[in-house]
Design a protein that fits this description.
Blueprint: E1 6-7, E2 16-22, H1 26-37, E3 43-46, E4 58-61, E5 64-67, H2 82-91, E6 97-99, E7 103-109, E8 112-117, H3 120-130, H4 135-157, H5 163-181, H6 185-190, H7 196-202, H8 218-229, E9 233-235, H9 240-252, E10 256-259, E11 263-268, E12 274-279, E13 284-292, H10 296-303, H11 306-309, H12 313-318, E14 326-334, H13 338-344, E15 348-352, H14 357-366, E16 375-378, H15 380-383, H16 387-390, E17 395-403, H17 421-441, E18 449-455, H18 457-464, H19 478-481, E19 495-497, H20 506-522, H21 526-531
Parallel strand pairs: 1-10, 2-3, 2-13, 3-10, 7-15, 13-19
Antiparallel strand pairs: 4-5, 6-9, 7-8, 11-12, 12-13, 14-17, 14-18, 15-16, 16-17
């Protein structure tokens, strides 16, 4: 695997750049690539971790590799689709895709199994077959999801237009989408059907946005559901190819990605204008614009001095939006591959004990010894056509579920790999439970497991620098979407945000957060530019 970027200690940086991007997640890489390619800007991307890419990076153990956040990406099968077009534009078409199988998701509710086939109309017909008496409810649901997703583009357009215009017409742009986003997913679904099993199936992907139906915004649910209706894919060569492909676009304009580069503070002058960053160790680097991909909480609470933020209402407003939930993930390596690959392919499995999703999750939040509210099983090695050539005779599986951070709070502040015997015992118990759950649903793994390792919210805190181990940034509740102040623009001149807290959660919404940030700097509708791809 090609290592993206250069080491901070081994690379001499210039004293000034056109733009500095803090963080190399997909939001940071996107804005850097757009500024490099379209604005001909000299961009410096500073990544605290020793590996660039954020949740698109991979990690290795022995003869295996696993992704940490790219399980599948929707709307990549056709170059004319906006997501595929955006990736093509960012990478000059270098990033290639394997299509997910015809059944991309398989949802288990108790002992029943529900397949999600590729294509909106095929999904509709499949749901009709499962629930013939609910056909009108299903049709209305699909129509509403598509409408909400379409209206979301107008809502996000408000974040790209000049502030005076946004203040004047922004309410009109937001209105249509907010009619959906202000409802919880459970409230919206209840308007279509009173069938609890159908509701559980339609919301069976809620792990993709990190909140159960009773807490999540239907706006976020709609964006995710619509996202996967049409041809999802997985990068050929693995998730790390995303950062690798975008990096070359940044470097072509003289930009640079620097790893192990710890930004301590964003520099702001007395006129509340950002002009650079101060690194750990004291080095200062100047730039005309600073863009933070570190998340809104990190930016306001940790990267800006208290002298700058004490009078900013945004810092206090942030406290009204909780962080998203965390995940625990068991990474598994197997030596024998054929039986597992032939039987399970590369479909994702969403497994729920019953239809009481909110209640089950609430019980788990109260007591981690309670049954898992759900778990998700992914077969990343089967999704990448190059995996077996790179790791002959090997395959990988990932099993995750969501959890609140409070179950791990007592170990906050401890060092990675030095958290003590009690923590390791706790991890081993969780690993055993997840492994038992996996073996119940994928019995072919028994006797073939060569390696397994558990990642906890403390791992996310350490590597992704999220203060509460959250995976999706700020929680995507109705209140979060009603926070009109939350976007790329900040009250600090020349300081912008990018990533998940700008648009929405997940790889694609974080990418479009980068498009929004670039639109503000370049004063141009970059959404329209990337939607054309390389045409």
């Amino acid at each position: 695997m090609k290592q993206v970027g250069v080491s901070y200690k081994q690379h001499k940086l210039d004293k000034k750049y056109d733009c500095i991007v803090i963080g190399s997640g997909i939001g940071g890489l996107t804005v850097a690539a757009l500024l490099s390619r379209h604005g001909n800007k000299k961009v410096l991307v500073l990544e605290k971790h020793s590996v660039a890419g954020g949740f698109t990076h991979v990690f290795h153990r022995s003869d295996y590799e696993w992704d940490v956040g790219v399980h599948y990406i929707g709307r990549t099968g056709d170059p004319t689709m906006e997501v595929r077009a955006a990736f093509d534009y960012l990478t000059y078409g270098e990033l290639l895709w394997n299509k997910m199988p015809d059944i991309y998701d398989r949802v288990f509710i108790g002992n029943q199994v529900f397949d999600f086939p590729t294509g909106t109309e095929r999904f509709r017909q499949q749901m009709h077959a499962y629930f013939p008496s609910e056909s009108r409810a299903i049709d209305k649901y699909i129509c509403t999801v598509n409408s909400a997703e379409k209206l979301s583009s107008l809502c996000f357009a408000e974040k790209t237009i000049p502030s005076p215009i946004a203040s004047s017409i922004g309410g009109l742009l937001r209105y249509g989408f907010m009619r959906h986003a202000k409802k919880t997913t459970a409230q919206a679904i209840s308007e279509f059907t009173s069938n609890p099993e159908l509701a559980a199936v339609l919301t069976g992907q809620w792990g993709d946005y990190g909140l159960p139906p009773g807490k999540s915004s239907f706006g976020m649910h709609s964006m995710v559901a619509h996202h996967y209706f049409e041809v999802a894919g997985y990068p050929i060569g693995g998730a790390s190819k995303i950062a690798e492909s975008i990096a070359s676009t940044i470097e072509k304009s003289g930009g640079c990605i620097v790893r192990s580069a710890h930004v301590e503070e964003i520099l702001v002058d007395k006129n509340k204008k950002a002009f650079g960053v101060r690194m750990k160790g004291g080095q200062e680097i100047r730039a005309e614009n600073v863009i933070s991909d570190a998340g809104a909480v990190n930016t306001y609470n940790n990267l800006l001095s208290s002298e700058v933020t004490h009078s900013l209402p945004e810092k206090n407003l942030l406290s009204s939006i909780p962080p998203s939930f965390c995940y625990i993930c068991l990474y598994i390596g197997l030596k024998n591959t054929s039986e597992i690959a032939n039987k399970y392919g590369d479909s994702n499995l969403w497994i729920y004990p019953d239809h009481n999703q909110d209640l089950n999750f609430a019980h788990f939040c109260e007591n981690i010894e309670a049954p898992f509210p759900f778990f998700y099983i992914s077969f990343p090695s089967s999704k990448d056509s190059t995996f077996l050539s790179r790791y002959p005779g090997r395959s990988t599986i990932e099993v995750f579920t969501l959890t609140p951070f409070n179950h791990f709070e007592k170990w906050k502040g401890s060092r990675w790999q030095h958290r003590g015997e009690e923590y390791e015992t706790f991890k081993n118990r969780l690993s055993k439970r997840l492994l038992e759950a996996l073996e119940r649903h994928v019995p072919a793994v028994k006797g073939n497991i060569d390696y397994c390792e558990l990642s906890t919210p403390l791992s996310t805190e350490h590597f992704a620098n999220y203060p509460s181990g959250e995976i999706y940034g700020l929680a995507h509740t109705p209140e979060r979407f009603n926070a009109r102040w939350l976007g790329a623009r900040t009250p600090i001149k020349n300081l912008l945000l990018t990533g998940q807290d700008v648009a929405g959660c997940g790889i694609v919404e974080a990418l479009f957060g980068g498009v929004v940030a670039a639109s503000n700097i370049l004063q141009k509708d970059m959404m329209a530019v990337v939607a054309r791809g390389n045409q």
